[in-house]
Design a protein that fits this description.
By secondary structure, the chain is of the alpha/beta class. The chain is built from 9 helices and 12 strands. Helices cover 37% and strands 19% of the residues. The structure holds zinc ion. Zinc ion binds next to loops.
Length: 254
């Protein structure tokens, strides 16, 4: 589960890139977009107007090819089931519960090594429902935060939620930590790092799996629907995603 509690910190970007990095490391990977109100996983992967097939045996996930000679990821998102991608989804909790149940149970995921869940913001219905449905399965949480105090405070709440639900924390990915000056290449932090460190220290044993700079290259990839770790493996930020995926594999196997 890729979660943050706060919106706008890059959960979907991290989820897509971690899923791709895990797939490129040889695992069979699914990516489930649990976000009902802002399902962006498909857009980030460059899929427009994608549809899924419904068979007697269930719903076929969208097969996302990461590139020539690269593996595919099985992707499921509410986007694939909407007539109009720009229409707002106005659902009460009972509908959301049904959707998440279908997402986990009615898609033909096949035998996966791991299913990456792109969670919406908040510790409300979607998260509770997902955790209820995953009970009995080995589930882990990956926290995403940006370095400002508000995002970190929200991240702490998400971590506390996981602790209460006995969901082990894989670690945190700190997003948008620094900016590199285009003139002199000097990297500077937008928010003071000691604030982030003191807040994250409130989650005992939390390991930082990656620090991702605010990157124009990553931003343009997201806008173009390209998963950077697959499309530009030579980028420095791609190496950071791969390293995070390696650490995640180690922790899950441990
Ligand atoms: Zn400069």
């Amino acid at each position: 589960m890729v979660l943050a509690n706060k919106g706008g910190v890059g959960k979907s970007t991290v989820a897509a890139n971690i899923a791709a990095a895990l797939a490129m490391s040889g695992l069979s990977v699914g990516l489930a977009d649990v976000d009902v109100h802002g399902p962006n996983a498909a857009r980030l992967a460059g899929i427009q107007g994608g549809r899924v097939r419904i068979r007697d045996s269930g719903i076929e996930p969208y097969l996302l090819a990461l590139g020539a000679d690269l593996p595919t990821i099985k992707l499921a998102s509410l986007t694939f089931l909407l007539e109009d991608e720009d229409a707002p989804v106005v659902w009460r909790d009972a509908y959301k519960y049904d959707y998440i149940r279908q997402l986990f149970g009615s898609f033909n995921w096949g035998a996966l090594d791991c299913l990456v869940l792109d969670m919406p913001p908040g510790t409300g219905n979607e998260l509770i429902t997902s955790c209820d449905l995953l009970e009995g399965h080995p589930a882990f949480a990956l926290l995403v935060t940006t370095p400002e105090a508000i995002a970190l405070s929200d991240a702490i709440k998400a971590a506390r939620f996981c602790e209460e639900r006995d969901i082990p924390m894989l670690g945190v990915i700190k997003n948008m930590t620094a900016v590199t000056c285009p003139h002199c290449e000097h990297a500077f932090a937008i928010y003071p790092d000691h604030v982030a460190e003191s807040l994250l220290a409130r989650i005992p044993g939390l390991e930082v799996l990656a620090q991702l700079p605010l990157s124009a290259e990553l931003a343009s990839c997201c806008d173009q629907g390209e998963i950077i770790v697959a499309k530009r493996p030579e980028a420095e930020i791609s190496a950071r995603f791969r390293q995070a995926a390696r650490l995640i594999r180690d922790k899950v196997h441990a």
